[in-house]
Amino acid sequence: MDTGRRLRAGALLRLFGNWKPGRRDIASSIQGHITQLVCDGRLPFGTHLPSERDLARELGVSRTTVAAVYDRLRASGHVETRQGAGSCVARGPADTSEVATPWYPVGTHAEIDLTQAALPAPTELFADLLARAAPAASRYGEGHGYYLYGLPELRAAIARRYTDRGVPTTASQILITTGAQNALALSLAATLRPGSRVLVEHPTYPNALAAIRRFGGNCVPVDLEPAGWDCERWREAVREARPDLIYCVPECHNPTGLTMPEDCRARLVDIARLAGAALVVDETLTDLTLDEPSPAPLSRFAREGMLLLSIGSLSKVFWGGLRVGWMRGPEAFIARAAAVKATLDMATPVLEQILACYVLAELDAIVAPRRAQLRANRAALMDILATSMPSWQTATPTGGISAWVRLSAPVATRLSEVSRKCGVVITPGPLFGIDGSFEDYIRLPLTLTNEMLPEAMRRLVHAWATVRDTRAVEPPTLVATV
Ligand SMILES: Cc1ncc(COP(=O)(O)O)c(C=O)c1O
Fold this sequence. Notes:
This protein is an alpha/beta fold. The chain has helices at 9-15, 26-39, 52-59, 63-75, 123-140, 152-164, 179-191, 206-214, 231-241, 262-275, 331-344, 350-361, 363-388, 412-421, 453-468; strands at residues 79-82, 86-89, 112-113, 174-177, 197-202, 218-223, 245-248, 278-282, 308-313, 325-328, 393-394, 402-406, 424-425, 427-428, 441-445. It has a 7-stranded mixed sheet, with helices on both faces. Strands 11-12-15-14 form a 4-stranded antiparallel sheet. The protein has a two-stranded antiparallel ribbon with strand order 1-2.
């Protein structure tokens, strides 16, 4: 069907973001971008695509390449072509990524695991806090134990933290969840409909992409520049995609470590408000800024009538095994999300929540040494990368637990396969993107101390040499890791 909407080649190129013809498989890259635009609704059904000649000229590629792309899009059902009428967006398959592939730790003890951007619990303090929490736990045992919204004292403690950060909050605006992931899932379950469009930073946290898809959303990527968020680009993306929801990680972004500057915050909230889109702000890593204090939370800029949800947890500041997180939002929405939670897990475990109260009371004392440790690990990683991998580019992350490393060739998936054979497991860039983007990136965690880092790098360097030089090379001898 031709709806009459004609897209010029220049307009299509703008929708590609900062696309540039790479050295490899240009046709797949163009095909991937167009498929994404069709699936996320920015190229609606019936849109008339540019001619092969115009698009080839605009993209700076050969006409044969564009012809091959259109052939493939016809074969996949995303585009249809009529004699004399050119090519239009077909109904095609909606979002083909219906089966979401979430990320979860995969390392074994024989390997050095660089896939987990999470620190172990602070051992001594952990035992101490457990001992302090035990009497309260047995007192709770006398009651029924079902707290759909969470323990009142934990809700109050989290509300106080928001108030202290300049966002007046009552306990009734807090829902305790089983980690930030649960808070995200509840936000999505209570807001999305099948086919809803969700704007996401690109790259972004893989399990957010998987959750959005699982709840029927189509992810619309907005490129995160090496310098950070480009508000104009967000404004354009909102105009084009008309999203139902925007998901962002404004502090210590996973995987880049970037933090959104102060001036962009009010603008992004305003963009969401004007578009009538819900804004989900993931603050899981907020307390881990490494150089400067966190700027004012996005919720400071929320206005009457908009839906802004903040989600967070104790996973990154204390321990991922303590499955305690939260959602902050308008009271009426908190009730809606709680109703969804009742159908899923009834409530977050009480013992975890009691421990969380004690953790929160000590949070500042817990976070300070963690930041110091992360700064030291970051310095060690940057040093070793500069000496052993000078062809890779890494901007020093200003927060969080990971570095986003640009390889000198788009071989991240192959590198991750070969690395595993060499005894080190890494996360390839495409996991953080849509449609195979970021094949020239890997994420490395800031978790390794000077003790393990040289051995991890030795294995990675070896894997890199193997990938660059396809001759079979014996893997290095493994050393035991814990
Ligand atoms: C940005 C972001 N959000 C949410 C989560 C999930 O956190 P939790 O373990 O509290 O569910 C993570 C975990 O890595 C994360 O990086």
